Task: inverse folding
C-alpha cells in the first residue's frame, strides 16, 4: 500500500484486491456469458434485424454499382443518339435504392434501439435486485460507492456499446462481407489483391483485443475508486466541512482522479495506435489496387468503369472498418464493465435462500438460540456460545456494555448474518429454512441507525407495510406521539424528508423509523436502541404505546436507558458476547449484588 | 416517480438563478478548460484538416491516373502516380495517429481538470446546497456528464469542424470541377441545415430528461445500497426493486423517445446525399454524353461526392453528441453557478478564549423560509463555561449548534466568538476553533486513525491516546490492526456505542476553543457513560462547551442549562434551580418520573 493510500487503513477483505482477483480469475468469460444471456430473448428479433440490415446494405452497396452501370452503359447511348432511357432507368434504380435504404434504416435504428434499451433495463433490474439479495456482510465490504459505480458507470459503458453497437457492428460486418464479394465478382484478380489486407487486419485487431481488455478493466476499477470517494465524501459532507477535511479530501480525490486519467490514457493511446493502423492498412491497399488496377486497365484487362467502381467499393470497404474498430473499442470497454457486472451477479448470497423452504404461515414468536457462535472476523468471536430461549409473547430486555454483542444477537435473529456455529430457531424452525419473505413477515427490527429514504414521511412509514391506509399510518404515529410534529410540518405527512431524512431532527427520524416498524406488525419485534435520541416525555409516550402493542408479541428490546427495561418481563445482561445475568428485572435488582443491580443503581443515580 | 424522489434537483434550486440553458453558450463557458491545451488542440485541428485535404487529394490522383496514363497510354506515369497515392495514404494514417495521440492527452486533461474543480466546488458549497441535492445527481454530473463533455470536446468538436470544412471544401472542389453539377450538390445543403436545426430543438429536451432521469436512478441505486440494512430488516427488497424498476422504465421510455428521434433524423441525413448522387449521375452522364465532361471527371466527381456521404450522416451522431455535451455543461454549470453562500471573512482570533455569544439569532431553513426554526435566541457562554441545551425533540437544538461553525448561517441576529461575528472570521480558522461531535457519528471508510485525526492531522500518538481515553474508546487498540484498521463504511463495522465514542474522540482531539456535543452519549451504557462524563468533565473544565442533552446525567456536565422551547431559549439557569422553578423543564428531565417507575419495577 503506497503512502498515498495509507489513509484507507487495513481491512480483512480489501474490496479492491478482491475485485482484482475476481476479474483476473474470470477473464471475460463471465462477460460473454452474461451478454449471451441478456440477448437470448431477442434471438429472433436479432435475426430479423440482420435481415433488415442485409436489405439496407444491399441497397447501399447497389448505388456505386448503379453508378458504374450508369457510366458504362448509360453514356454510350447518349453519345450515340442522345438516348436517355438507359440512364433514366438507372437513375430511377438509384432513387429506389435510396428509398429502400431509408426505410430499412429507420426500421433498424428503432428496433435495435429498443432491444438495446430493453437489455439495459434488464441489466439494471437484475443488478439492482442482486445487490438487494446479497447480505449486509457483503455490503459491509463492498461499500455503497462500489455498488453505485456498478450501477452507473458500468451500466453506462454497456449502454454506450448497445447504443452504437448493433448498428456499427452488423452494418460494418455485412458491408465487409458484401463488398468483398462484389470486389471478387467485379474482378477476381484485383479482388484478391485487395483482400490481401485481411491477415493484417486480423493481426492488428487481435493485438488490440488483448491489450485493450487489460486497460479497460483498469479504467473500470479506477472509476470505481473515484465514485467511492466521491459518494462517501458527499454523504458525510457535514463532518468534512466541520472538521476542515476539504484539503485532504481534495488530495485524495486528485489522486484517484489522476489514477483514472492515467488508466484512461493507456486505453486511449491503444486506440491511437489501433485506429490509424486500420486506416494505414486500408490506404496501402487502396494504393496497391490503384497501381495494379491501373496497370491492368492500361493493358486493357479491365475497363475504366470497373476500375472506378473498384475504387469506390474499396472506400466503402474501409470506411466501415473505421466503424468496426470504433465499435470494437466500445465493445472492449463494455466487456470490462460486463465482466464487473457478471462478477456481481455471480456473487453467491452468503445468506442463501433455503432450497426447500419451510412454510410458516403464522408465527407464535418463540425465538431460540441454540449454541450459537458468531464472529465477524475469523478468530475474533463476538458470540462464543449463546444459548437462549425467548418464549412466545415474552418481552425481553437486553442490556450490557457497548460492544457486548447485543446488536449482533439481533442481527442473527433477523438473519443479516448466519451463525458460524449452532442454530437460530423461530418457532422451532431454523431461520435458514425460512424464505427471507417469511422471516421478515414475522421478525422485524428497528436498527440502531434510523435510516430514512428520500420521499415523504408517509412513504417512509408505509415502508413497513406498503399497503397500509393513511388511517393506519396516522394510528401508528398517534400511538407513538409522533402525529403532532408530523401534522405541524408544512405538508404534513406529505413533507419530503429530503436527503436521507435530513429534513427531520434526529429524534423525529427515530420516531418515523419506529412508526415504520409499528406498522409492520410482526410476531417478533426487535428494537435496537430505538428510543435513544428521544427526549424523556417522548420516550414515555413510546413506552406506553409499547405496553399495548407488545401484548401477545415477542419483543427483544435493546437499551442502555433502563427506563426502557421497565416494561420487560425479563432482563438479560450481556458481557463480551455472553449472558451473565438472566431474570425478571425485579428479582435482579432485589439480588442487590449482581451486575444488573449495579447498573440499576448507577442509572437511578444518573437521574438525580 | 416524484413521490419516490421528491422534487427532482433539476427543479429544486428554489431562489437560485435560473438553470443555465443547454445551448452553445453554456458549452462556451467551459471553454477556459481548453486553454492549457491550445497547442494540442491546434495540432488536432491542423492534422484533421490535413486528413481532409488528403481524402480529397486521393480521388484526384485517381482521376489523374485514369485520364492520364490509362487514357493516353502513358505507362511511365503509372508508377509515380501510384506511389504518390501510397505516400498520401501513409501520410494520412500518420496524421490520424498524431491527432489521436495528442488528443488523448488533451481531452483527458480537460476532463480531469473539470472533475477536480467540480469536486472542489462541491466541497465548498454549504449544507444548504447539499441537503437539497441527492448525491446520485451530483455523481452523475461528475461522471456521465463530464464524459459527455470530454467526448464532445475531443472527438465531437473536431469532427464537427472537420466535417463542415470537408463538406465546404469538397463542394468547392466540385463546383470548380464542373459548376452545374457542383450547384446540385450545394443545393443539397439546404435541407440538411434545416433538418439539423429542427433536430437540435427537439433533442435538447429529450437529452436533458434522459440525463436527469439517470441521476434519479443513481440516487435510487445509492439508497438501495446505503439503506440495505433497513430494507433487509423489513424484507422490502421487492418493494425497492419495484421502485427502481419503475424509475428504470421511465428512463427506458424517455430513451426510446430519444432513439426514435435520432432514428428519424439519421435516416433523413443518410438519404439526402444519395438523392444528390442520383441527380449528379443523371446530369453528369448527360454531360459526358454531350461532351461537356470527361468520363474521368465524372468518376472523380462521383467519388468525391460519395466521400461526402459519411461526413453528412455522421453529422447526425456528432450533433447528438454536441447536444448531450451542451446539456451536460448546463447541468454542471448549475453547480458552478451556485456561489458558496458561506464564505469566510478575513479576521482571526489570535488568542481564542472561547467566549460564545448568540444575539437575537433567527434561523430558518431555506426550504421553509416562513417557518423559522430559531427565533430571537440569546445566549452568552463565558470562556470555559459549559452550557447544556435541553429541549424536546425537534425544538431546534441541533440547528442552534450548527450555527456556531457556520454549517448554516443565521438569517437574523448574530453569533459572536470572542466578540467577533463568526461571519467575519476566516472560515477555516473558525472551524478549527469549534469542533462538533454530531448526533449521528458520520465516520468514513478509512483507518481509525484517519477518522480520529480528521480535525487535526498533525496530532501525535500521545494526543490520540489521550482523546481515546477521554471518550473511553480504547477498544480501538483491540481492533485487528489497531488504529490502522479500516472502519467500515459509515463506521458500520463498529457497534453503535463504539461509533459514537470514536466521533467523540475526534471532536476532543481537535482541541477546540468551543466543543459542541450533540447528544453524544445516547448510545453508551450507564457505566461507560459515567466514565466518559468524568473524563469529559476535565476537558470541559477549560473549554467552552455546548452540550445537547436529553438526560439529566449529561446535563450534569454543564455549569448552566438553557431550555430550548419551540426554537427559542426560554430559560437559562442551573439544573436544580430550573428543575424546581420551571415546570416545562421538570417535565423534560424529571428524575421522579423514572425513579417512580424504577421503584415500581423493583
Ligand atoms: N460488521 C462488523 N464487522 C466487524 N466487527 C463488527 C461488526 N459489527 C460489530 N462488530 C464488532 O462486534 C462487537 C459487538 O458489536 P455489537 O454491535 O453487537 O455491540 P452492541 O452490544 O450492540 O454494542 P452497542 O451497545 O455499542 O450498540 C463489537 O466489538 C464490534 O466492534
Ligand atoms: N433541512 C431542514 N429543512 C427544514 N426544516 C428542518 C431541516 N432540518 C431540521 N428541520 C426542522 O427544524 C426543527 C429543529 O430541528 P433540530 O434538528 O434542530 O432539532 P433538535 O432540537 O436537535 O431535535 P432532536 O432532539 O430530535 O435532535 C425540526 O422541527 C426539524 O423538523
Ligand atoms: Mg448495538
Ligand atoms: Mg438534534
Result:
Amino acid at each position: 500500500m503506497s503512502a498515498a493510500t495509507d489513509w484507507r487503513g487495513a481491512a480483512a477483505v480489501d474490496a479492491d484486491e478482491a475485485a482484482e482477483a475476481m476479474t483476473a480469475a474470470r477473464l471475460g468469460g463471465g462477460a460473454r456469458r452474461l451478454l449471451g444471456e441478456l440477448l437470448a430473448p431477442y434471438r429472433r428479433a436479432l435475426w430479423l434485424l440482420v435481415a433488415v440490415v442485409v436489405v439496407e446494405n444491399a441497397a447501399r452497396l447497389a448505388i456505386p454499382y448503379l453508378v458504374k452501370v450508369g457510366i458504362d452503359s448509360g453514356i454510350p447511348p447518349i453519345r450515340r443518339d442522345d438516348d436517355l432511357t438507359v440512364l433514366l432507368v438507372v437513375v430511377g434504380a438509384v432513387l429506389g435504392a435510396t428509398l429502400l435504404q431509408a426505410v430499412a434504416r429507420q426500421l433498424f435504428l428503432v428496433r435495435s434501439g429498443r432491444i438495446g434499451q430493453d437489455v439495459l433495463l434488464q441489466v439494471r433490474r437484475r443488478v439492482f435486485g442482486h445487490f438487494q439479495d446479497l447480505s449486509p456482510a457483503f455490503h459491509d465490504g463492498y461499500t455503497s460507492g462500489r455498488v453505485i459505480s456498478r450501477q452507473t458507470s458500468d451500466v453506462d459503458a454497456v449502454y454506450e456499446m448497445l447504443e452504437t453497437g448493433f448498428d456499427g457492428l452488423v452494418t460494418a460486418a455485412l458491408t465487409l462481407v458484401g463488398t468483398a464479394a462484389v470486389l471478387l465478382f467485379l474482378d477476381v484478380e484485383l479482388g484478391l489483391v485487395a483482400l490481401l489486407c485481411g491477415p493484417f487486419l486480423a493481426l492488428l485487431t487481435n493485438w488490440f483485443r488483448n491489450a485493450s481488455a487489460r486497460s479497460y478493466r483498469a479504467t473500470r476499477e479506477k472509476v470505481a475508486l473515484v465514485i467511492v470517494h466521491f459518494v462517501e465524501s458527499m454523504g458525510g459532507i457535514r463532518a468534512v466541512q466541520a472538521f476542515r477535511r476539504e484539503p485532504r479530501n481534495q488530495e485524495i480525490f486528485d489522486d484517484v482522479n489522476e489514477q483514472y486519467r492515467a488508466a484512461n490514457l493507456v486505453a486511449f493511446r491503444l486506440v491511437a495506435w489501433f485506429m490509424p493502423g486500420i486506416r494505414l492498412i486500408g490506404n496501402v491497399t487502396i494504393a496497391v489496387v490503384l497501381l495494379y488496377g491501373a496497370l491492368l486497365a492500361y493493358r486493357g484487362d479491365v475497363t475504366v468503369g470497373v476500375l472506378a467502381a473498384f475504387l469506390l467499393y474499396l472506400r466503402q470497404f474501409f470506411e466501415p472498418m473505421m466503424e468496426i474498430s470504433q465499435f470494437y473499442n466500445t465493445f472492449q470497454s463494455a466487456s470490462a464493465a460486463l465482466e464487473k457486472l457478471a462478477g456481481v451477479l455471480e456473487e453467491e448470497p452468503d445468506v442463501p435462500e433455503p432450497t426447500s423452504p419451510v412454510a410458516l404461515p403464522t408465527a407464535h414468536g418463540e425465538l431460540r438460540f441454540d449454541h450459537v457462535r458468531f464472529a465477524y472476523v475469523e478468530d475474533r468471536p463476538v458470540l462464543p456460545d449463546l444459548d437462549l430461549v425467548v418464549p412466545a409473547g415474552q418481552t425481553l430486555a437486553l442490556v450490557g456494555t457497548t460492544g457486548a454483542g447485543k446488536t449482533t444477537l439481533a442481527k442473527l435473529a433477523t438473519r443479516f448474518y448466519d451463525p458460524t456455529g449452532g442454530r437460530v430457531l423461530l418457532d422451532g424452525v431454523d431461520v435458514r429454512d425460512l424464505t427471507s419473505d417469511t422471516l421478515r413477515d414475522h421478525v422485524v427490527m428497528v436498527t440502531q441507525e434510523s435510516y430514512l429514504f428520500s420521499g415523504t414521511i408517509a412513504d417512509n412509514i408505509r415502508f413497513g407495510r406498503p399497503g397500509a391506509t393513511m388511517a393506519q399510518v396516522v394510528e401508528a404515529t398517534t400511538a407513538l406521539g409522533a402525529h403532532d410534529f408530523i401534522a405541524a410540518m408544512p405538508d404534513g405527512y406529505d413533507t419530503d424528508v429530503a436527503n436521507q431524512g435530513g429534513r427531520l431532527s434526529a429524534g423525529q427520524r427515530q420516531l418515523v423509523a419506529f412508526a415504520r416498524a409499528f406498522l409492520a406488525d410482526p410476531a417478533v419485534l426487535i428494537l435496537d436502541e430505538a428510543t435513544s435520541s428521544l427526549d424523556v416525555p417522548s420516550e414515555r409516550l413510546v413506552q406506553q404505546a409499547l405496553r399495548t402493542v407488545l401484548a401477545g408479541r415477542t419483543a427483544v428490546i435493546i437499551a442502555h436507558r433502563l427506563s426502557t427495561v421497565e416494561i420487560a418481563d425479563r432482563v438479560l445482561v450481556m458481557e463480551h458476547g455472553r449472558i451473565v445475568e438472566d431474570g425478571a428485572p425485579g428479582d435482579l435488582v432485589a439480588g442487590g449484588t449482581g451486575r444488573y443491580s449495579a447498573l440499576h443503581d448507577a442509572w437511578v443515580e444518573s437521574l438525580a | 416517480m416524484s413521490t419516490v424522489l421528491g422534487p427532482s434537483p433539476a427543479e429544486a434550486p428554489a431562489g437560485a438563478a435560473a438553470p443555465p440553458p443547454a445551448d452553445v453558450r453554456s458549452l462556451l463557458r467551459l471553454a477556459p478548460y481548453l486553454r492549457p491545451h491550445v497547442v494540442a488542440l491546434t495540432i488536432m485541428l491542423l492534422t484533421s484538416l490535413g486528413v481532409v485535404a488528403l481524402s480529397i487529394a486521393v480521388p484526384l490522383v485517381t482521376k489523374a491516373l485514369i485520364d492520364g496514363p490509362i487514357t493516353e497510354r502513358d505507362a511511365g506515369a503509372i508508377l509515380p502516380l501510384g506511389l504518390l497515392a501510397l505516400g498520401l495514404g501513409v501520410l494520412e494514417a500518420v496524421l490520424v495517429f498524431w491527432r489521436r495521440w495528442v488528443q488523448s492527452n488533451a481531452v483527458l486533461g480537460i476532463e480531469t481538470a473539470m472533475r477536480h474543480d467540480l469536486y472542489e466546488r462541491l466541497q465548498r458549497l454549504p449544507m444548504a446546497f447539499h441537503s437539497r441535492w441527492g448525491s446520485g445527481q451530483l455523481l452523475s454530473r461528475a461522471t456521465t456528464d463530464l464524459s459527455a463533455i470530454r467526448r464532445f470536446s475531443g472527438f465531437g468538436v473536431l469532427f464537427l469542424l472537420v466535417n463542415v470544412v470537408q463538406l465546404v471544401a469538397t463542394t468547392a472542389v466540385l463546383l470548380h470541377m464542373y459548376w452545374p453539377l457542383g450547384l446540385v450538390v450545394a443545393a443539397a445543403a439546404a435541407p440538411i441545415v434545416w433538418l439539423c436545426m429542427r433536430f437540435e430543438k427537439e433533442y435538447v429536451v429529450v437529452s436533458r430528461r434522459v440525463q436527469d432521469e439517470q441521476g434519479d436512478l443513481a440516487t435510487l441505486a445509492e439508497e438501495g445500497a446505503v439503506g440495505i440494512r433497513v430494507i433487509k430488516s423489513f424484507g422490502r427488497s421487492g418493494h425497492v426493486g419495484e421502485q427502481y424498476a419503475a424509475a428504470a422504465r421511465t428512463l427506458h421510455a424517455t430513451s426510446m423517445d430519444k432513439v426514435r428521434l435520432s432514428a428519424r433524423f439519421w435516416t433523413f441525413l443518410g438519404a439526402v446525399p444519395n438523392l444528390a448522387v442520383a441527380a449528379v449521375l443523371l446530369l453528369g452522364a448527360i454531360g459526358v454524353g454531350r461532351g461537356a465532361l470527361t468520363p474521368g471527371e465524372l468518376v472523380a466527381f462521383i467519388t468525391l461526392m460519395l466521400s461526402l456521404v459519411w461526413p453528412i450522416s455522421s453529422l447526425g451522431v456528432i450533433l447528438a453528441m454536441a447536444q448531450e455535451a451542451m446539456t451536460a455543461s448546463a447541468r454542471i454549470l448549475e453547480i458552478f453557478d451556485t456561489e458558496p453562500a458561506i464564505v469566510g471573512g478575513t479576521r482571526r482570533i489570535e488568542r481564542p478564549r472561547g467566549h460564545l455569544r448568540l444575539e437575537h439569532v433567527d434561523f430558518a431553513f431555506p426550504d421553509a423560509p416562513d417557518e423559522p426554526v430559531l427565533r430571537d435566541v440569546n445566549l452568552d457562554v463565558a470562556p470555559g463555561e459549559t452550557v447544556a441545551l435541553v429541549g424536546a425533540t425537534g425544538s431546534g437544538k441541533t440547528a442552534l449548534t450548527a450555527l456556531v461553525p457556520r454549517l448554516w448561517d443565521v438569517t437574523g441576529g448574530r453569533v459572536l466568538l470572542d466578540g467577533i461575528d463568526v461571519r467575519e472570521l476566516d472560515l477555516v480558522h473558525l472551524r478549527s476553533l469549534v469542533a462538533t461531535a454530531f448526533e449521528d457519528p458520520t465516520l468514513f471508510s478509512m483507518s481509525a486513525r484517519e477518522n480520529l485525526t480528521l480535525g487535526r492531522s498533525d496530532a501525535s500518538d500521545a494526543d490520540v491516546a489521550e482523546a481515546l481515553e477521554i471518550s473511553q474508546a480504547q477498544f480501538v487498540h483491540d481492533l485487528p490492526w489497531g488504529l490502522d484498521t479500516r472502519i467500515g463504511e459509515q463506521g458500520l463495522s463498529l457497534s453503535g456505542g463504539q461509533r459514537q465514542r470514536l466521533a467523540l474522540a475526534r471532536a476532543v482531539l481537535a482541541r477546540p476553543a468551543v466543543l459542541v456535543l450533540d447528544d453524544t452519549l445516547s448510545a453508551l451504557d450507564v457505566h461507560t457513560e459515567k466514565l466518559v462524563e468524568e473524563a469529559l468533565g476535565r476537558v470541559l473544565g477549560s473549554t467552552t462547551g455546548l452540550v445537547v442533552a436529553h438526560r439529566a446525567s449529561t446535563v450534569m456536565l454543564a455549569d448552566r442549562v438553557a431550555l430550548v422551547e419551540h426554537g427559542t431559549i426560554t430559560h437559562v439557569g442551573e439544573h436544580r434551580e430550573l428543575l424546581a422553578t420551571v415546570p416545562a423543564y421538570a417535565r423534560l428531565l424529571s428524575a421522579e418520573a423514572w425513579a417512580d417507575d424504577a421503584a415500581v419495577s423493583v
